[in-house]
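We read letters as residues; the fold follows as tokens. A sample entry reads:
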Amino acid sequence: MAAYYNEIEPFAAQWLRNLIAAGHIAPGDVDTRSITEVAPDDIQKYSQAHFFAGIAGWSAALRLAGWEDERPIWTGSCPCQPFSVAGNKTGRSDERHLWPAWFSLIGAIRPPVVMGEQVAPAIGKGWLDEAFSDLEGVGYSCGAAIVPAVAVGAIHKRDRLWFVAHSERDEQSGREQCSGPIGRVGRQEQPFSWDTPWETALAHFRNVDDGLPRRVGATDAARNAVVPQVAAEIIKSFMEAYDGETIGF
């Protein structure tokens, strides 16, 4: 199996299985345990690992960017609620602050490349400082940028913090060049202002929700997902730098 997917939410986990069965994302296994219950030995055999996998935005983005399924990488979008303007803003004291759990696995396995995403306000809460301090402490070079969904033509702003960490211990061979165009989000009529307060924006999003459990699960999963086209641009930039032997941030 090429990939390991960790997703605790049952609806999203089944969505992942359906995507794997249909061949839309890298083949692999779906683990529905909390990341706090996952041990390094559980994921040692996988070339790719996607934590907080949601509906496979990262795996889809890797394929969009031309990253082969067997090429090693770990990805993750840690829960944003502790740092989001829509949450309780309790930061690192929130039990949903799961970066320490993810980093404990990163530190044990030391994958060659780690990529992740978080809400932009997490920077002011010290999330990025903590993550980079941990990663650099075990030999990773790190870089980050805030890139909105509108940068790839989406109809909403959706500022997100994207980061890449590259291990100085990387012994990967057979580095491939990126090929094929990056997918684009089509432009459509804007349903509400990019700067609309999150409560109003969420109400608009919920208008497609008819109250049935299946539709509720689908809208929640989509709302929490990364925009694959943005992630693909991050991945492509890394590939151009790394495969061109000009790595550095």
